[in-house]
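User: What would this chain look like folded?
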Amino acid sequence: MLVKWIRLTVVDRRGFERGQRKWAGLLGEPGFRGQAGGWSRSRPGVAHLVAFWESRAFYDSFMARSHDRLAAAQVGTFKDAHIRLFAHEFDVKVGFRPTFGDADVLRLAHCRVRQDRVDHFMLMQEKVWNPAMAGSPGMLRGMLGRAPGEEFLVVSLWQSAAERGKYRPERVERLALRAQIAADIEAIAGDVVQLEPSWTV
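Assistant: Here's the prediction, encoded as structure tokens.
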């Protein structure tokens, strides 16, 4: 599975949201598995979207044929688009599926990992972070994706912001020490996204 992550700054909110509804046209696309998004809870005007495809081949075919027609409705409504593609490496919890009706919050963690620490980083994701997240109240499911250049994206879906709030600083610090995250990671950036049900495809 392929995940596409888009982060952008919206300059015309009404126009952007109106255009966002046009992406319902993705439903007929071969290989399309689902899309969701919403507003950053910490950065005003920043929107995130995640789209899931069965494979890179299906995604490339869509980009060549239908993408520009669907995207036309949002031209001029945003700036600073940051787009990355990640290949699914493994699930967080079990049986990740790109459905969003039961989730309120999307959590994204974007990591650049030191080249010589990739194996350790992935082992710690599996042995330390996954069990901790899977055991957190309100955490539904998630996945780890990888892009070339030692770049990783952890996507997790949560039932509510209140439940996500329980997965908090002291616990995260303990886990980070156990996973030796400072030794593995060159840079990490994250965001918590309030999902907009009308953006779900």
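Residues 2-199 form a domain with the Alpha-Beta Plaits fold (CATH 3.30.70.100). If you want, I can go into more detail on any region.
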